[in-house]
Design a protein that fits this description.
CATH class: Mainly Alpha
Helix content: over 70%
Structural class: mainly alpha
Number of strands: 0
Number of domains: 1
Number of helices: 14
Shape: globular
Largest sheet: none
Length: 291
Amino acid sequence: MEQFGFIIALLVIGILLQRVDAPADFSKSLNFFVIYVSLPATVLLQVPKTHLDLSALGVIMIPWILLPIMVYLVMVITRKEPPQVRAALLLVIPLGNTSFVGIPIVKTLLGPDAIGYVLMYDQFGTFLMLSLYGSVIISRYESGTVHKRLILKKLLVFPPFIVLIGALLFGEMPAKAIPYLEILSATLVPVALISVGYSLRLGGAVDYRMFSKALALKLLVMPLIAFGILHAMNVEPLALKTAVLESGMPSMITAGALAIASGFAPELSAALVGYGIMVSLVTLPLIAHWL
């Protein structure tokens, strides 16, 4: 409970920092540090410890199996809604906050041995979806065209993904490098969660009927479907628990920001990200206890 209290405290620190005269690019700077320093160091430490067996394959596959299911369910619940609402939910429901929120929460609920699976789910699942699927949704609903070259560029220059491939190919780092990587990796949780808290935006005129459906789909239906699929695949317990919790993470802040920037139901998108994080602090421990 102390660790979970620490997570909440870091989020609160980030929220309180909204009230000070912070630099205009404060949140971007924090995210830049996490993406280019903290996350790659964590990848180099944790991924070589995880073997690419059937369980790891299940963790990698499950976000992609869930994607068409969630797209279909979004299409169903938005059949009478404007295209911009549909576009917003197509972005913020399949794409979860599986690194900035996922890593500290899974580490707290399941322990450090689960982090390798978290990184596989995040990098081979959520990140690739953001780069490929997310770009397609934005292009389709914003301009009606898909920019394939831009999507490929985003994929090839993302540092944690490049480091992930290197870690899988070359294995563990030299023993002398590990203490320094551990120092850099230790910055991920506090910096990421403060950034999340600082980026939280609550309130606004929200369609709470649609909001409730979307939030239930994101935080409850997705992890339940993931559990059923992974249980049928006979995935080992730690991998199963990690993937189920990752499937139940709140909406990715970046996905919400992209939806808002593109004019896709901004109030609804912001509410799903902001309130989703708050509600997930209740649903994720309950799911972990049930598992």
